[in-house]
Design goal:
The chain is about 70% helix and about 0% strand. It is mainly α.
């Protein structure tokens, strides 16, 4: 089965957006809101991003970092969150710069 999937061009064993989202949410537990609504918002944004073909062409780590960034931005309108420190940490964990993370985070909502 694995050989057939590889022959058809499937990338087997590649981490998904959800894998990265879960990892980011666990890694940043001390700075991210521990509110269940924040987790739900991040998951929702991840799901709607899957309907955008151009977003699905991005590395999963960049898209997940962008989703967390955008979820924080939305969440920050209701509660106070130190967005800069989290964005800096997302940069190092996802290996993508903050401009890309913020740019694609905005695209998730379009």
């Amino acid at each position: 089965e694995l050989e057939i999937l590889i022959a058809l061009g499937f990338h087997v064993g590649v981490p998904t957006i959800k894998d990265f989202l879960d990892s980011f949410l666990v890694e940043f537990h001390s700075v991210l809101p521990q509110d269940q609504n924040f987790w739900r918002l991040s998951t929702f944004l991840g799901k709607i991003a899957c309907f955008n073909y151009s977003l699905m062409q991005l590395p999963a780590s960049l898209l997940a970092a962008s989703i967390v960034s955008q979820a924080l931005d939305l969440y920050q309108t209701i509660n106070r969150v130190d967005m800069r420190s989290v964005l800096t940490s997302l940069e190092s964990l996802s290996s993508h710069n903050s401009e890309k993370i913020e740019m694609y985070g905005q695209t998730v909502l379009l």
